[in-house]
Amino acid sequence: MNFLSVGFVLCTMNFNMGWELNYIVRLVGALFMLAGLTEADSVSQGFKAFRSRVIAITGISAGGLGFTLMLRFQLLPEALRHPVGIFFGVTLAGVVIWVQLGLLKHMTEHHELVNDPSLLGKLQKTWTRYAFFAALSVFTEALYRLLPVTDFQAGVGAVEVISRLIMYVYVILISTAFARVRHDFNIMHPV
């Protein structure tokens, strides 16, 4: 559960679309999650079923990183920056939310993983709030990039900034909630 918790939290970090950091952090997070799935599957069956989904995060992250690096070094035309950023940013955020939702459902269904199942409930509740603000942030950022410069675009940008700040608060809350789950899991299943 140690690797899974680190990877889960790293994948929740959603930076600006088109930033290399956005793809690097999630790529590293997906790699941690892959190791964590193997670790958790040794205790409770069913975690390895998420392997292909996490590999999808890895592939999208690597693709987004490759395209942003090609744009940075001017190997692709600058006109592709927004469409490529929107495509990879929205796709990556959607896949991460889908994978994390599945993992959390699996963990709450197998509440015997921990001594205190309420910790899983608290993690899922916190994550659900995070997912709302993450989706809102990604949607408004994509909309902001597509709109012409107007007052409406400025309003969308303000909503995007506020939702992103709230999302970061929930990233911190998720990391502490998952740390409690990890601690309880490690007490119950010592290595």
Structural overview:
- By secondary structure, the chain is mostly helical.
- It has one domain (2-188).
- 79% of the residues lie in helices and 0% in strands.
- The protein contains 6 helices and no strands.
- The protein has helices at residues 2-12, 20-41, 51-72, 81-109, 118-146, 151-188.
- Helix 1 runs antiparallel to helix 6 and helix 2 (20-41) packs antiparallel against helix 3 (51-72).
- The model has no long low-confidence stretch (mean pLDDT 94).
> Can you tell me the number of structural domains?
1
Q: What's the N-to-C terminus distance?
A: 10 Å
* Tertiary shape: globular
Total E-strand runs = 0
What is the string of SSEs from the N terminus onward? HHHHHH
Low-confidence stretches: none
Specify the biggest β-sheet.
none
Backbone structural class: mainly alpha
Mean pLDDT: 94
* Beta-strand content estimate: under 5%
Number of helices: 6
**Gyration radius from CA atoms, angstroms:** 18 Å
Helical residues, percent: over 70%
Would you spell out the secondary-structure blueprint of this structure?
Blueprint: H1 2-12, H2 20-41, H3 51-72, H4 81-109, H5 118-146, H6 151-188
Task: Name a few traits of the molecule.
single chain, 191 residues, mainly alpha
Question: In a nutshell, what does this entry contain?
Answer:
This protein is mostly helical. It has six helices and no strands.
